[in-house]
Amino acid sequence: MEKRILSILVDNTSGVLSRVAGLFSRRGYNIDSITAGVTADQRYSRMTVVCEGDDQMLQQITKQLAKQEDVQDVKILEQDDSVARELMLVKVAVKPEQRQGALSIAKVVDVSKDSLIMEMTGSQNKLKAFVELMADYEILELARTGITGLSRGSDDVRYL
């Protein structure tokens, strides 16, 4: 099984996220993660979809996405030619004697008497390693954004 990250430029219209996700579900394909947000041009949104499958299935879904009326562009984000990141927030319980050590592990974005919320951004491997590093702490909550990314360089790029 191969993992593919697709960067999809779509019209910023209601229902487009549902239509793109529906394309996957109608064919029985799973979406590992999906992120979406408006671009610098308010008429367009960029969706980043991570999916997994064999080469034939991934080629088929990529071609079918490109045929959608709301889809302006589909790019495959290759590991060497793109930058892909994910954000994770982790709320951990901290005892007074653990607080100083926890403060040095990651960016702390919220502090309370008995817990900290930390932010970590990076590859999925980095986030996995961070969670393993947090084994000495009680993880109270964890939230991940899903992967988002862009291709490197300026060749064949629309600035949206």
Please give a handful of descriptors for the protein shown.
alpha+beta, 5-stranded antiparallel β-sheet, 160 residues, 4-stranded antiparallel β-sheet, 4 helices, elongated, 9 strands
Walkthrough of the structure:
With 160 residues, this protein is α+β, with helices and mostly antiparallel strands. 24% of the residues lie in helices and 44% in strands. The protein contains four helices and nine strands; from the N terminus they run βαββαββαββαββ. Strands 5, 6, 7, 8 and 9 form a five-stranded antiparallel sheet that branches. A four-stranded antiparallel sheet has the order 2-3-1-4, with helices on one face. The longest helix has 13 residues. The protein is elongated and about 55 Å long. It starts with a strand and ends in a 9-residue tail after the last strand. The model has no long low-confidence stretch (mean pLDDT 92).
Report a brief summary of the structure.
With 160 residues, the protein is α+β, with helices and mostly antiparallel strands.
